[in-house]
Fold this protein.
Amino acid sequence: MKPKSKYGVGQQCWPTFEDARDAILIADVKTGRIIDCNKQAEILLQRKRTEIIGLHQSDIHPAEEKTTYKKVFKRHVQTKGRDPFEGEIVRKNGKRISVEISASLLRRPGNGYVLQGVFRDITKQKQMIDEIRASKDRFQAAFESPAVGLAIVGLDGKWLQVNPTMTRILGYTKKQLESGKYQDITHPEDQEKSRRMMIGIATGKTNHVRFEKRYLRPNKTVIWAMIHASLVRDAQKKPQYVVSIIEDITNQKRSEAALLESEEKFRKLADKSLVGIYIIQDGIFQYVNPRMAQIFRYRPSELIGKKNVIDIASPQDRDLVATNIARRITKKVKTVHYRFNGQTKFGDLRRVDVLGSYMVVNGRPAIIGTLLDVTEDERKDYELRDRAEELNKFQLAVAGASDHIIITDPDGMILYANRAAEQITGYKVDEMLGKNAGQLWGGKMDPTYYKQMWLTISQEKKNFKGEFENHRKNGDTYTAESSITPILNKAGKVIFYVGIERDITKAKEIDRMKSEFISVASHQLRTPLSTAGWYADMLLHEDAGALTEQQKKFVSEISRANQRSIALINALLSVSRIDSGKMLASPRSVNLVSIAQNVIAGLKPLSERSRVRMEHSFDPKIPNITVDPDILSLALQNILSNAIKYTPAGGKVSLKGKFCDNEVCIEVHDTGIGIPKSVHDRLFSMFFRADNARSKDPDGTGLGLYIAKSAVELTGGKIWFTSTEGKGSTFTFTIPANPPKTNGNGTMSKELSTIL
Amino acid sequence: MTAPKHILIVEDEVPMAEALDFKLKQAGFATTVANDGAVAIEAVRSTAFDLILLDLILPKVDGFGVLEEIRKRKIKAPVLILSNLSQQDDINRALGMGAKDFLVKTNIQISDFIERVKKELGA
């Protein structure tokens, strides 16, 4: 059955008008009067249809809203309805009901237009909405709270809503955020992580996730955030959106990173440190760095948690270490710095320097400290101290030495002079420093001598020894025996010179006096001897008349004794001169052959008397040699005369002169009595005479070979012999072709005695 | 017959001077003995000798002083040094000052020395 409508409007427009679920009211657009309604309208308005029809459309709305509704009606007429809107109607009993109104303009056939309003009772929805709104408000309050950043995010990542804290954290405005997705501002490195988390939630695998991520702020700075995201589902359990709580953990992160970094830094520092680092608690190592362990020859793992501190102290220092630990633990002193003798795993001692401080670890007292191995340092310190002491001793020795000692730079400038230098030269140290010896006491000799000296010390870099005639400050001359030594660095460069001088003026004077004495003594001794000799000679020549055979024999004995005395005195004088160093040679270029021939000629009377044949041969290659001819003669004479004397009549003495290796070699061979093996090593001793020599020639002095050896050695040569008793002897000596350099140039030459 | 050669003996040691005087006279020479240097200088100033035997160590003026005088006066007579000094520089010095020879008393017997004189004077 169709609802009957008086005006047939509802039927005409909407056949289901009467049975519609919503209330429908139809008003005339011109009058605004209601001209029809359906059953639901009766129910909604709680009025009879008859009561309703004829009412002005505004009459069904609250009285204070009537004007508004009239305006709305007119607007709807103009706009032909459409937009549903919320409104209120008032029932007969005055109760207001929320309704959703949708109006539409309908044409009344042949009779203009009507406005149909469909009213749906939305009280329940309204209530729900209000309830929702109430809870939403509460939520909003929470949402807007500044404590945390909150966001509602769509499953596609779109920011649906963000709270002010969120905007503050992220640095974007609400508008900026809500027009984009979270992906837009997620740090590139965290995009993947965020995506995974979102998928996890959006697919419902999980309802809640918590993770850290980074966002990029508009100013490109990075912020770290802790995200708590929860899924919100609808009534059908379908995922709707995600609620995210965001905490700014940037500072926390930063300090975490800083902490990590600094821990890493300190760990590295400790691991690489040359200083031992340790933490002790309850007397046990809680931490040691590798160096600390190494100092005591342990591995860190052997110490940490295992070893007691006193295990690394030597037994005699354990009390000391224990006391110092106690002092720190009890906070009597906060920091202790001291040294003790440590002991390694293998028992050897290490000297260590410790700086330990009190600290709290895990709420309990502990000591953190550093430890240095100073074993080597202390050893060096001691060494240095010893060396300094030694140096001091040397300095004192040098300063107080009786010899004049100076140190100069490579140019000869005086850098140091000792007290003796002051005493000898008469200059004060201050006057000497920075000057050259030549400006002070030297420079008075032949320039070539100084040139030679400089050549030796600066070019050859060898020690120079020589005598200098120097002048004291007061003008007095003095003779200095000097030794100048270049001191070289590792590269062989001269860094300074050390000059040591001895004032030998007095010694020279004494030598001169000695020489004079010997000269006078020789004269005085020899004068009466020669007088006696001459008178004996005159007697033997029968200048005083003929002598009987017996008288002749007696005078001959006197003459022989006289000759012996003269020979002995001459030999003693030679020895005396050689020994007192007076026979300093005057080497010059000489011809060995002619010297030897002279000596041989001089010995001819002796050899003839002894009936000993003499032979000689010389290598024609023998060059002129530089030697003092008198020394050479002395050596030759003694050896040859010995050879003749100790060779029986009919025997032979032969001399051979050879030249090899830049030295002349003279060999004197005889067929004499020979030298007993037992006395070979004593043969050159002063006054030594072999028994067989004594019996052969009772008049010998025992000085000949001693003089020969001394003479040869003065020339820088060597002398030796081979001999077989009863068969003969060979004496050989060498003379260097060039004199040894020890005497510098010729300035040391000296008169030579030829007391023969 | 020519006059004997005149020899000046300068020797302070009297027995030696006497021995030389004796032997030289025996050998046919005329002699004059001077026992010190001053007398010797006096002698060479006043007398022309054929030979001078000169000791070196002498009272008043030593042998070198006498040699100096002889050199100064350009005396041509040969001078034989007869001394017991025997150091090389004495020898060199004497020879350098014009002495003809240097003989060491202990090293020569008087008869050998007379032979040396004879040889020098071409006797």
